[in-house]
Amino acid sequence: MKKINWIVVLAGAVVGAAAVALTALGNPANMGFCIACFLRDIAGAVGMHSAAKVQYVRPEVIGLVLGAFIMSVATKEFRAKAGSSPATRFVLGAFVMIGALAFLGCPLRMVIRLGGGDANALVGLLGFIIGIVIGVQFLKRGFSLKRAYEVGKSEGGVLSALMAGLLILFLAVPALFRFSEEGPGSKHAPVLAALVIALVAGALAQRARLCMVGGIRDAILFQDFKLLYGFVAIFLVVLAGNLASGSFKFGFELQPIAHSSHLWNLLGMTVVGWGSVLLGGCPLRQLILAGEGNGDSAVTVLGMVVGAAFAHNFGLAGNPDALNEAKEIVVGGISTAGKAAVILGLLVMLGVSVWNLPKKESVSASVETV
Question: Is residue 364 in some structural domain?
Answer without folding.
Answer: no
